[in-house]
């Protein structure tokens, strides 16, 4: 694909074209879903930039970089699928599969081996990279919620919902794992027992 012109003026009236050609309003739920996936992808890019600045070539930073680069590519695939008119397919259409969900589960399991079980909720934080991972987790949950809502109105491949669900879990575990590897403390939620 070659993009030769950034602006086309075709969206100036408040509509956009889905892959496959269908015109929809820019506030259409499907556009909101893939736009939120795009927002998440951009935020994961910010995490990668902070990780590169903070981690150098240390093993935890390298693992995080490799996994987040893969995540960004899968998020781009996810957005492409969600931006496609339901029931249409095109040549070289991106895919998100059960294997991608399984890869996230293996990542979660690998990182959890280094973490103590949670006995209380934690507050998002733990340093710059962990904080950004927590932020990415919340955007991922929003993308998941919107995707579920869309799936009740239009066809959505169930594996997309599973992928987003597992990705939010992975981002949570990665935030904890990076904080531990960097020696940054987690703040526990303190109940107000009045």
List keywords for this structure.
single chain, 194 residues, mainly alpha, Hypothetical Protein Ta1238, Chain: A, two-stranded antiparallel sheet, two-stranded antiparallel ribbon, 4 strands, 5% strand
Describe the structure.
The protein has 194 residues and is mainly α. It has one domain (27-85, 94-185): Cobalamin adenosyltransferase-like (Hypothetical Protein Ta1238, Chain: A). The chain is built from five helices and four strands; from the N terminus they run ββαααβααβ. The chain has helices at 29-55, 59-82, 98-112, 128-151, 158-182; strands at 15-17, 23-25, 122-123, 187-188. The strands form two sheets. It has a two-stranded antiparallel sheet. A two-stranded antiparallel ribbon has the order 3-4. A hairpin with a 5-residue loop joins β1 and β2. The model has no long low-confidence stretch (mean pLDDT 91).
Shape: globular
Distance between the termini: 61 Å
Counting DSSP H or I runs of 4 or more residues, the number of helices is 5
CATH architecture: Up-down Bundle
Structural category is mainly alpha
The helix content, as a percent range, equals 55-70%
Spatial sequence of strands, sheet with the most strands: 1-2
Q: CATH superfamily assignment?
A: Cobalamin adenosyltransferase-like
Q: From the 3D structure, determine the CATH topology.
A: Hypothetical Protein Ta1238, Chain: A
* Cα-based radius of gyration, to the nearest Å: 18 Å
Low-confidence stretches: none
Order of helices and strands: EEHHHEHHE
CATH class, anyone? Mainly Alpha
The chain-level mean pLDDT equals 91
The main sheet comes to: 2 strands, antiparallel
Tally of structural domains? 1
Strand proportion, as a percent range, falls in: 5-15%
| Number of β-strand runs | 4
């Amino acid at each position: 694909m070659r993009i030769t012109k950034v602006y086309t003026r075709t969206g100036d009236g408040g509509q956009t074209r889905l892959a496959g050609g269908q015109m929809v309003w820019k506030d259409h739920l499907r556009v909101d879903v893939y736009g939120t996936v795009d927002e998440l992808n951009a935020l994961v890019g910010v995490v990668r930039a902070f990780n590169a600045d903070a981690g150098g070539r240390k093993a935890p930073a390298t693992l995080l970089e490799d996994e987040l680069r893969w995540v960004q590519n899968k998020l781009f695939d996810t957005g492409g699928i969600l931006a496609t008119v339901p029931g249409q397919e095109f040549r070289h259409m991106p895919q998100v599969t059960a294997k991608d969900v399984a890869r996230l589960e293996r990542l979660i399991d690998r990182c959890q081996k280094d973490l103590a079980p949670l006995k209380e909720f934690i507050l998002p934080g733990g340093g710059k990279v962990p904080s950004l991972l927590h932020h990415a987790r919340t955007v991922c949950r929003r993308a998941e919620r919107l995707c579920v809502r869309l799936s009740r109105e239009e066809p959505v491949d169930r594996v997309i919902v599973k992928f987003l669900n597992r990705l939010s879990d992975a981002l949570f575990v990665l935030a904890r794992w990076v904080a531990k590897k960097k020696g940054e403390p987690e703040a526990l939620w303190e109940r107000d027992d009045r």
